[in-house]
Amino acid sequence: MKTYLVTGGAGFIGANFIEYLFETKKEAVKVINVDALTYSGNLENLKRVEDNPNYIFVKADICDKAAIEQIFAGHDVDYVVHFAAETHVDRSIRNPEVFAKTNVMGTLNLLNAAKNAWETEDGYKEGKKYLQVSTDEVYGSLEEGNTFFYETTPLDPHSPYSASKASADMLVKSYADTYQFPVNITRCSNNYGPYQFPEKLIPLMINNALSGKKLPIYGDGLNVRDWLYVKDHAKAISMVIDNGKLGEVYNVGGHNEKTNIEIVTIILDTLQEILPADDARRAGVTKELITYVADRKGHDRRYAIAPDKIKEDIGWYPETKFEDGIRLTIQWYLKHQQWMENITSGQYQEYYKEMYSI
Ligand code: NAD
Ligand code: TYD
Q1: CB–CB of 22/1 below 8 Å?
Q2: pTM, 2 dp
Q3: Deepest in the core among 28, 107, 145, 296, taking most CB within 10 A?
Q4: Domain spans of the chain?
């Protein structure tokens, strides 16, 4: 039985990944989820797996050396899948320090703990792997046109968030180069799907539209992101753990580029279609809610992944069409309004007030 140490498993992608592992792995797996439960970590995201006897939750900060060492001392970890991070660009612009601490120092702490636990006299215990979950944002920004991020594209991060993720990637690379430490790095484009915290574009727009609140679009609304359904990302990570060549970087995404205004329009149209005729909110879900606001500082114009390498080497490709994925996502949020209320009732209101003066 393989043991996965998943960091940040109470967040959006981590929770989907843990669910994916238990749903799809034919042989039993053990999952240790270590998460500090920051504002974006939520144990409600793990309701479907929490009773599984092979699931263990440890509340700890990845920067806490003793706590992380204790996990490795207590379990024979086969794979580290490192999601835990501060992840929101807007927050990084307001408060960069915590991004450096968690994303850079936390990664270093994890690398050291795994290296110490796996080291033998002449290398590392058989079959171990550390997977760094990174982002396409480390490559910087593309102009409009037929250009894409490849694994060979030089890193050129612009926000404190992407700079901290690029720094973490460089540390991971240095452990592979210096100590022959067994790693992979995945760099994924924007994810969407169930359990995403409503500070990010898609859940924020769904939530605001359903509450009849304005839909704040930064700048001209023509910035482009390459959207990937979160379960496709979970599958990619699992396939890279199983079949990725040690030391390699894999871009994950899939030629699904959309401008922000297109995304918001699709959300409004889909809500109009899905909401029952007698639902009071239906009448309020209109394009009049769209409100252009000041642009994000240093706003990256366009992200677009070339996923050729992961397709050719590992056979992964994005399976979920955007029209299907966004419908599933909106339906999920409609069914989980209590989930949304729980996470938007407290601190979130303060964040929203400070961030959006509309
Ligand atoms: P998220 O913000 O939803 O979740 C982050 C999780 O990490 C939370 O559960 C939080 O409690 C935990 N965490 C934060 N600081 C911690 C610390 N110091 N110690 C332990 N746990 C801590 O983020 P997400 O969207 O699920 O992103 C997961 C990973 O995927 C991140 O590394 C992110 O950079 C990467 N990524 C995200 C996207 C995306 O579109 N969301 C795209 C590409 C890559
Ligand atoms: P976001 O979901 O924060 O992801 P990232 O910045 O990591 O790509 O934002 C996606 C795009 O949506 C980005 O171009 C910024 C834009 N955006 C808005 O226009 N309004 C908003 O309220 C938010 C949160 C994002």
Answers
A1: no
A2: 0.98
A3: 107
A4: 2-193+227-255+298-319
* Residue-by-residue DSSP string for 129-195: EEEEEEEGGGG----SSS--B-TTSPP---SHHHHHHHHHHHHHHHHHHHH---EEEEEE--EESTT
Å from CA of 190 to ligand 2 middle = 10
Residue of 200, 230, 326 with the most ligand 2 atoms within 8 Å of its CB, for mutation: 200
Q: Is 89 in the pocket of ligand 2 (CB under 6 A)?
A: yes
Domain boundaries 2-193+227-255+298-319, corresponding CATH code: 3.40.50.720
Residue-level pLDDT at 145: 85
Q: What percent of the chain has pLDDT over 90?
A: 97
Question: Is the pLDDT score of 30 beyond 90?
Answer: yes
Given the residues 35, 78, 86, 136, the one annotated as active site: 136
Q: Which of 48, 58, 44 lies closest to 22, judged by CA?
A: 48
**Has 136 been annotated as catalytic?**
yes
